[in-house]
């Protein structure tokens, strides 16, 4: 135990998962004064009972009791609705695909939670995210987690450096198998608990069923880029760029057996454009624009910037050039065309292990069907419905 940490109070965001459980264990072993806090970010009194908050709370309590730390509870459901969920609905209504985990981290876990923890007298908060930090003056740089298979810096890019400086990421320094081994050795109930994916407020429901509760479905036609009607969709918001399953296109003998993929969405005409072949040129983009970037350091680095970027979680870093636009915002030009770039999702920038920040994708420029010239595809596309593993477990 490190006695130099004995007077430092850390409040750990306890999700009921293995990562936050082990984070609390490690911090206690390092001599910190550790307390837990369970956040309720979604109101389950809506009759759906799909979220698992009560089961997660029970697991968090069991872990805190096992390791001998107190557990606080707090509801940020109102803040989540106002700052995250309403934006989520607005984006889907506008034909984009938002990533609620990114906004949740920015507005709830590293703002509402941090502010609340400070009222408890916390010097730091801690989460189970797979990320690291490097203190720099009064701020901090955000670094990738040590485990490349679990790195979650993509989801944390919108958190400012001053808030990163007040956060500890204990499991960011180790790999996931080691995390589970520690949990098992400690006899924690969460040691073999499955990692959560998707969005808590949707739970086990079908995504389309959930959206239908809040946004009206508008069925329309599915067409080829040449304008041939090949099917019907139940609503553009249910479909994503690069999607193959669920299109209901079949029996088109003259087109052969090659699978169909969503290439774009025409919001004005309420038309879904589909193409055949996973590598069809219309699925690829040469550049994108973003009107606003959250830089971890608080200010943009000198432009133009040679760096790497990713447009979705788990994508390998892609070499690119970032440049400012005359009217404001940034253009990102990739060295190689990128598949399924999705307005509404985020582009995140890296220099080696350092996450510089990122912004929401507004539009993309893609090659035409012959690849002879670029054409702008405005923000009517999407790729992944919801986010993947953006929450600390």
From TrEMBL:
ATP binds at residues 13-20, 39, 128. Residues 209-273 form the tRNA-specific 2-thiouridylase MnmA-like central domain. InterPro entries: MnmA-like (IPR004506), MnmA-like_C (IPR046885), MnmA-like_central (IPR046884), MnmA-like_central_sf (IPR023382), Rossmann-like_a/b/a_fold (IPR014729). Residues 367-385 have a biased composition (Basic and acidic residues). GO terms for molecular function: ATP binding; tRNA binding; tRNA-uridine 2-sulfurtransferase activity. Residues 367-393 are annotated as: Disordered. It catalyses: S-sulfanyl-L-cysteinyl-[protein] + uridine(34) in tRNA + AH2 + ATP = 2-thiouridine(34) in tRNA + L-cysteinyl-[protein] + A + AMP + diphosphate + H(+). Pfam families: tRNA_Me_trans, tRNA_Me_trans_C, tRNA_Me_trans_M. GO terms for cellular component: cytoplasm. Belongs to the MnmA/TRMU family. This is tRNA-specific 2-thiouridylase MnmA. It comes from Hydrocarboniclastica marina. The lineage of its organism: Bacteria, Pseudomonadati, Pseudomonadota, Gammaproteobacteria, Alteromonadales. The gene is mnmA.
